[in-house]
Amino acid sequence: MTAAANAREAILNSVRSALRRGPLDDKRRAELDARRPQHTRPAQDEELVARFIRKFESRAGTTARVASRADVPAAVEAYRVDKGLPAHAAVGAALKDLAWPAGLAVHHDPAGISETMAVSQALAGIAEPGSLMMASGPASPITHNFVPDDHVVVLDAGAIVGHFEEAWEVLRARAEGMPRATNIISGPSRTADVEQTIQLGAHGPRRVHVIIVG
Amino acid sequence: MEIRSKEFKERAVFAIHDASLQQALGKARGGFVGKRAQQAAELPEFEQLREEAKNTKNHILDNLDHYLERYEAAVTAAGGHVHWARDAEEARKIILDICKRVDAKTVTKGKSMVSEEIGLNEALIEHGMEVVETDLGEYIIQLAHEPPSHIIAPAVHKTKDQVSDLFEAAHGGPRKTEVADLVNEARRVLRDKYFRADVGITGGNFLVAETGSSIIVTNEGNGDLTQTLAKVHIVTSGIERVVPTLDDATLFLRLLARSATGQETETYTTISTGPRRAEDLDGPEEYHVVLVDNGRSKMLGGRFKDMLRCIRCGACMNHCPVYGAVGGHAYGWVYPGPMGSVLTPLIKGLDNAYDLPNACTLNGRCASVCPVKIPLPDLLRELRHMQHQQDITPVMQRRALKVWRYVATRPKLYHALEQVGARFLSAIAKNGSIRRLPLASGWTDVRDLPAPAGRTFLELWQGKRGQK
Amino acid sequence: MTESPTRGPRVGLFATCLMNVFRPNVGFSAVKLLEDAGCTVEVPANQTCCGQPGYNSGDYDAARALARQVIETFENYDYIVGPSGSCMATIRHDYPVLFHDDPVWLPRAQELSEKAWELLSFLTDVLGATASDAHYDGSVTYHDSCSGLRGLGIKGQPRTLLGEVDGLKLKEMEDSEVCCGFGGTFCVKYPEISEKMVEDKVRNILATGADTVVGGDLGCLMNIAGRLKRINAPVKVFHTSEVLAGLADGPGLAGAAKESD
Ligand code: SF4
């Protein structure tokens, strides 16, 4: 046996001997595989979009709401101008089809070290904590979520679910399976490592702006 | 990391007299405690979740081999690799081999207590690699060449002034004094490292058997940059961190941030599953998980199984008055506070950390906030019991216990001695108390001993009521 | 349970070691409160210590020897009641654990455990006492002793009863639930850490401006009183039962016979 296989067997055996039993039989294994936990979900009595906004903004995130997907480029541009950002952005290919203003240079590649703004499509919103759920893929690179100072995220109102558990169902329903990175984002990056003083923009975006569609 | 828990007493006294440390600890204490209490109060289901979390962890531990196998299979199916390490040395070797294979020059790291436990940084540096801690707190203490003093806030013992000094020395002037400027400076320096890194190493808060994913929870986003921009992502985690499903992970996520930093949620919860897919534009090309045993499977068999429920939130140390008085470094190894006082003797040997289980008043505040209801005081007492049985306890204490037992099981003798004691102490007292008592200097060095009245209650009672 | 004063429960008073030697007045206060509430109180002479020092030092055999003695001495009473959250939590929670694999002693330990009560919790939770006819001139702050608070859930009971005391003004201190640094042998094994903890406690006590501090465990109270005395802070220290029984008219713990001395 190789050293690696040795270690694996040794650890599993040590676990079993600590538990005073041998390997589980197939019946028990099947039971464990069939286990579907029903843990307590904190009660909510708020409309989902309203709750999402309230929670997301409580952590220094900002939001805007537009009627349709076609309104997104204008809302992004308004944000960019308001923040005085340069006229270029990394835009996830998921948003490629939108009519981006001529004055805004967009690309769909990963974000490089000097990227200032990225625009991404969220897979879902989770109202419970007021968080975004991003699934990485060719149409939404991970670097867009973390590298630029400003991150603008497009979220369909209908994609906001109540609890984490419902967001997992969205992931499980994906034909392509789990993405490499599922990023649940709850606001701008922050740190409190120097004397417990909260400072935004530790390593990730300094600002996260959500455009809710619908 | 070398264990220095034998010096607990000296280090504790030193810490108590370290003015900047006391200033830093004072600032931290109230914040964590108050915010956690507020979060717990705002979630009516909080106590119920603690109970469920405890039961769920127990279920996982009872079936740990099964869930580990399922997890391994799922990681492999997603294109990742699982490595098993019996001890610290094996874990270091696995990681070193990966780093050497890809000819790593720069290794970035998200916060990982397991990597501290296995002494990873020293090993990588010894082999010529540049190791960069990216969590701001970890970065600060790396510059200071110190170990973390807290599992959640590694630099909690540092004041802003000290951070300013460290940054000035490392990055050059001008010296920054505002928190915002310090954070920006670290951001700028570390940006460059992320993009240059060959290997990114993170911990794993949870390992999900259902999907083969590892989950990390951070506020800064450093873990994400670490694991996304490097060519290789390595996760180090203890074998007990596996959970069956995403729904189970959720149960713990609901408790973790609230218990740790008193936040409803931390900013980033990241679920990583395998390396980048063929069509992906970014993400690591390789994904490895190193499952570390290092004493954990042994713990599973006995009285300390409860300790394996720990989700490393740090609430126990935030609420520990001893930790609050002496800080994390006094404990002398990787894990401080109540959880460390249980883990350190178990991992590093009972006689290497005699003081840790003993330097505790058993006040129980830690257990009352632990999100997975680990009976920490009971476990500490159990360690004292093992020390007693193995004759690790000081001889004087064992003698004293023998005498005490002899006398206390003989009521007449006991009462006679109590009477003598009460009279003696009363006779030497002045103004109601005793300032100095050579045989009890541990008491009288720091406080007066209140004087007895002279006669014992039982004496007086028998005089009054004459009962049997 | 409290049908008539003469037919009330028969209570064996657990006279804790510290009380017996250092503060007999607490014993008399306990007896008065229990008798006023209709109990018949006896103080069995065969008692010594609950065994906690052995237990917490890891000497479980010694602890069991003491536990057997307590069980034999008290098992024939309706209740065993003591003015200490610490000792009573040991009897309530730790005895059954100590005998968990002993078929003979486990049932006896469990039975006693169910009858074991800390004084104030017994008065309120079992006997339903709410009022006190005592009088105390002063402002009082209450320290939550850890074993009573977290082991036995004692928090509201003493405050309710103290609130009933005529003339008494209750002032909450910051961090009243944080350990004072006593911890049995901890305070002499790690005096510097203990000092830091009691220093914090005393600072919080002084910040209330109260002239008296009370609590339910003599260990903590001796630690606090000793520290207050050492720094010459003129705050009186009493066991809660002394105030409730109206027997807090003498000097407090570590107090000189006359305050002006
Ligand atoms: S022992 Fe409990 S409170 Fe302490 S770190 Fe672990 S989970 Fe958190």
Map the helices and strands.
The complex is a heterotrimer of chains A (214), B (468) and C (261).
Chain A: H1 3-18, H2 26-34, H3 48-57, E1 62-66, H4 72-83, E2 88-91, E3 105-107, E4 117-121, E5 124-126, E6 131-135, H5 143-146, E7 150-156, E8 160-161, H6 164-172, E9 181-185, E10 190-191, E11 199-200, E12 207-213
Chain B: H1 8-16, H2 19-42, H3 46-62, H4 64-77, E1 81-85, H5 88-101, E2 106-109, H6 113-117, H7 120-126, E3 130-133, H8 136-143, H9 160-171, H10 179-196, E4 199-202, E5 206-208, E6 213-218, H11 222-229, E7 232-238, E8 242-243, H12 246-260, E9 268-273, E10 286-292, H13 296-299, H14 315-318, H15 321-326, H16 337-348, H17 355-358, H18 365-369, H19 376-389, H20 395-408, H21 411-428, E11 433-434, H22 441-444, E12 449-450, H23 457-465
Chain C: E1 10-13, H1 17-22, H2 24-36, E2 40-42, H3 52-56, H4 60-74, E3 79-82, H5 85-98, H6 105-115, E4 116-118, H7 119-126, E5 135-143, H8 146-152, H9 156-164, E6 166-170, H10 186-189, H11 191-208, E7 212-215, H12 218-230, E8 236-239, H13 240-244
Parallel strand pairs in C: 1-2, 1-3, 3-4, 5-6, 5-7, 7-8
Helix pairs in contact in C: 4-6, 5-6, 5-8, 11-12
The complex binds iron/sulfur cluster.
Iron/sulfur cluster is lined by residues 310-316, 339, 370-372, 374 of chain B.
